[in-house]
From TrEMBL:
One of its GO terms (cellular component) is chloroplast. This is Malic enzyme. Pathway: Photosynthesis; C4 acid pathway. It comes from the Eukaryota. One of its GO terms (biological process) is malate metabolic process.
Amino acid sequence: MFSLTGSGSRRIFLREQWSSVVVLLRLVRSKGKGEMESMLKEDLRGDRPAPPAAAVDIDPKSTVGGGVEDVYGEDRATEDHLVTPWTISVASGYTLLRDPHHNKGLAFTEKERDSHYLRGLLPPICFTQELQEKKLMHNLRQYQIPLQRYMALMDLQERNERLFYKLLVDNVEELLPVVYTPTVGEACQKYGSIFRRPQGLYISLKEKGKILEVLKNWPERSIQVIVVTDGERILGLGDLGCQGMGIPVGKLSLYTALGGLRPSACLPVTIDVGTNNEKLLKDEFYIGLRQRRATGQEYAELLKEFMGAVKQNYGEKVLIQFEDFANHNAFELLANYRTSHLVFNDDIQGTASVVLAGLVAALKLVGGTLAEHTFLFLGAGEAGTGIAELIALEMSKQTKAPLEETRKKIWLVDSKGLIVSSRRESLQHFKKPWAHEHEHVKNLLDAVKAIKPTVLIGSSGVGGTFTKEVVEAMTSLNEKPIILALSNPTSQSECTAEEAYTWSKGRAIFASGSPFDPVEYSGKLYVPGQANNAYIFPGFGLGLVISGAIRVHDDMLLAASEALAQQVTQETFNKGLIYPPFSNIRKISAHIAANVAAKAYELGAATRLPRPENLLKYAESCMYSPVYRSYR
Ligand SMILES: NC(=O)C1=CN([C@@H]2O[C@H](COP(=O)(O)OP(=O)(O)OC[C@H]3O[C@@H](n4cnc5c(N)ncnc54)[C@H](OP(=O)(O)O)[C@@H]3O)[C@@H](O)[C@H]2O)C=CC1
Ligand SMILES: CC(=O)C(=O)O
Ligand SMILES: [Mg+2]
């Protein structure tokens, strides 16, 4: 069926089915064929250690210092540097065209068409990557329905990975709402119907006892970031079960496009323990386990096995990002694994870091220090209490006051009203620190009137909850009320940008979790910002990876937040914005990564030694570029 051969022969990748083989074939230069074949047998048994970094001419040490790994030099090679697409020999280049990691479509050069047996398999014209990008953007813009754009982009990702990332990097503001919120939410809701080819790794209750084996089925070995969900709280859309896979897939595409992590180092995972979503359980196209959610010991054991298998398979330094778990599991998972694994909960910690950055930046517009402001949240779950805690921590660092004191400047409302001390006994543990002395207040409007906040933050997952009365009350209390409607997707936003600007008579400093178009009010154009953890997690993860950090510390979140706030320029402030434009995100991510890595070294949590002198330059040099490489 195939033979193992070196350069000069017919080489095609069969990455999906033959990933293990490919790993070995990449070693073909340093090993003889006989040795290779015996290693192949070992590899298919799954007991072979990771290959040495010696398969290409590029010095792997000069790549990313083992940081964002590039063992074979494929990504680190410059555009002029030739790389070898090590393959299994087959009769034609047909399979190469179907390998998303190496396919270039019409951009294969004449020389590549000759050396990789592509003649006749492509029309005669050669396009540049830029021309392909132009054509695809034109095609994408023809679709009126966002979900069609999403599907077209997913198809591209599976057809030509570098072109997909080139599009995303160069058109981030236009495409972010497609691969990410809000469209990814709709994609998850309809995942069963739009499902074509599986993406990511599915680990269900059926795999209990075999999770390590399942991880070994994934074609890549050098995993550096895992985003994992159990699908129970997908954005503000609730329990979408196994269909939550769209979220880890989307988040990881941002890790690559925004943060420069190599696509092959990213692993999306969905843990399927069932769903309590009746509609999905009855949906004949539902792709997950058709049972109600496992809970308690059964759930905890599956997660424990997963966490253990990840560490065993990928080592201590793989970052595991928990995403969109329901809060009854999210806080516990973070608490249980933060001392034994490199874990990060994006909804609790990433969101906190991004919101704190926005608030610090907003102080330049409204004046005062953090401690001089009063904060009111609608929503006291992961995002709400996570943000509240980081604000209190930063205030405490700035004022030297104890956390218990600084927390008193922050109030939260949940579905039962203001969180106050009389409710303490019945509160979930993560709400208890926020149960301050106050009489019971049952709704948000009354809470605004009673607490008189300068900052109002929505993290309830319920759309339309910042009513006209609420925004007007904020405006009557403040010259420039800060209003953040964080809930995703757009349908769940606590208010729209138009509502915020109209009801506040243009005085609100507004940002939302999902993007809104600029709004014209009273002859002036208002540009809303996007307060979304996508500003933080890609750079944060890059910082952890390049420093070889083995644990996440709260001070690293503060470091990320500080770096983001520093990226807001005067020009941005002049537009009334508190976040920099997403079009600068690669630069922003490099700054965040450098600050996070610096903190990791300072805290003694970094293992990559010696510390690079210029962490910013180092971070930049580690970032994946989606420009095509030239093949021998
Ligand atoms: N912009 C961003 O970067 C991010 C945005 N988010 C968004 O934030 C939202 C919440 O996420 P998360 O915190 O994880 O969710 P949780 O389920 O952990 O928390 C939701 C909170 O909202 C409260 N709530 C629900 N309905 C109401 C209501 N009608 N009035 C008042 N409070 C209400 C709940 O109250 P109770 O406890 O009483 O049930 C709970 O405290 C989601 O829409 C998510 O998409 C999340 C992370 C990042
Ligand atoms: C943005 C995000 O992580 C969320 O809405 O859950
Ligand atoms: Mg999330």
